[in-house]
Fold this sequence. Notes:
The complex is a heterodimer.
Chain A: H1 3-23, H2 37-43, H3 46-79, H4 82-92, H5 94-97, H6 100-110, H7 117-124, H8 136-164, H9 168-176, H10 181-209, H11 213-218, H12 230-240, H13 244-252, H14 255-276
Chain B: H1 2-53, H2 57-61, H3 77-85, H4 88-119, H5 125-136, H6 140-153, H7 161-166, H8 168-184, H9 188-196, H10 201-212, H11 214-230, H12 233-238, H13 247-254, H14 263-283, H15 285-297
Amino acid sequence: MCLPLILVIVGLIVYPAFYSIHLSMLNKAQTRFIGLGNFRFLLSRDTFWMVVEQSAIFALSAVFFKAIIGLITAHLINNLPTKGQRKWRGMLLVPWVIPLALSSLAWWWLFDPTLSAFNWVLTGLGLRAIPWLSDPYWARFSVILVNVWYGAPFFLIMYLAALKSVPEQLYEAAAIDGANAWQRFVHITLPMMRNIIAITVLFSLIVTFANFDIVQILTGGGPRNMTHVFATYAFLLGIRSGDLPLGAATSLFMFPILAIAAIFILRGVRKRGREIG
Amino acid sequence: MTTAALAVPATRRLGMRSSLRRNRRWALILSYVFLILFAIFFLMPPYYMIVTAFKSDAEMARMATNPWIIADGVTLDQFRILFTQTDFLIYFKNTAIVTACVVVITMVISVLAAFALGRMRFWGSGILATGIFLTYLVPDTLLFIPMFQIVKWLGLLNSYWSMVLVYPTLTVPFCTWIMIGYFQSIPKELDEAALIDGAGHLQMLFKIFIPVALPGIIAATIFAFTVSWAAFVYPMAFLYSSDQQVLTVGTVTTLIRGDVYKWGMLMAGALVAAAPPLVIYAFLMDYYIAGLTAGATKG
Lengths: 277, 299
């Protein structure tokens, strides 16, 4: 009964992963084995190091703000009377439900150079219009903003589920002992949620680090390659320029980071599985 | 002396309780204020999508009017152009076919596998369950380049059937993982009773496991649906002609031709393309959320 599953996993995930390693060691025409030549070539390029830097900035800052916003909104919703919680939760999860490619398109339109709706508000307030996607640093800010917008609701849902699983008696006991809201948060909520926070952060780190849609649609990696992340750069080299081996080598650089995160997630999930029993 | 000592804390406690209530009211008001701010941030792009889709091109070109409202009246022109002058309906049909196939394939594979892994202990079952979880964490952006070569070998490049082949890599691991969790939560006594009554394994699956774990099956189906509806990397890399294109890539790249972006039509397209997942979410929110949170809590 597991045979179809094994076929999918081995044929379409494990095999391509190993094939990717072989592919990355060929020359552009895939006729000659060149060892680590592609990797050496990438490491000698300034653009590649910019991609590494931007991927790190993109993933770390986006995950950080997603986690913070998710935590805040989860607490705010948890404060409300139970009746209204559903409605708010339903409303705030909408960014996660819209296919990312389509909401990125809407963001692009919001950032439009001449008709930007944000700039209409800014100039209306007497401020200067912002070159959202044409200035490299603003473009970096914009792609991170869109990622935070998209991913924060996921954190919200995970935290809210975790908050509900913290036993009410703990808070009552703390209240009787005179703990204030902040102390209750630090000494009860955080320790009880530590595991779920870790899992969510690591999971989001993988997804964000490997993100493709937002950057590809909003900037295509520009201006001056400043917003490229691993996935879009691999797409540019491998598919657009037709150098599959070089593209494969680029995306393989993601592997060590993803593998480390995956191992920690697995440990966290196992631990949580034992806690729940 | 004793009465005085007793009276003081009592009044203080009373005062404390009313201040506590006042604090709680303030906390509630503040919560609402901040939630409204966050809601504005989260709902602004979809709102703007709707506003743009129902606006005329003439109004959009006027830079002085407020872009956040529809001043000249609601029009369906953008949708008419979208449906009659573009290939949008072809994209929609292609995505619908691909998604339907992927959902069926995913559910058959993952329910069978989860049944086996959740109930029978056999050699390597533990390793296989761990392996499933790890493959779920392998992102499509790591695989799309070797996959391009594989799809090319199979002669499926620029055919939407290649999507039916590759999307299960995104859906099967997670769906199997959450179905294992759901199946394991079914009490062992139920299958023992069924075995005593002479039911075979398949009968057990269809008569007991699937009905009892129906919430899990709905959650997994929703997950498979939304993932294959929204997939972007694979079609972006493998499909290039308009008659084979799917909704996400078709709307984002193919509808944008020439120098002038027809934003009204684009937003109308984005709105129609985003509608099916949003409708499912609106009606089956609890299952949707159960599927979302199950990954980290089950297993």
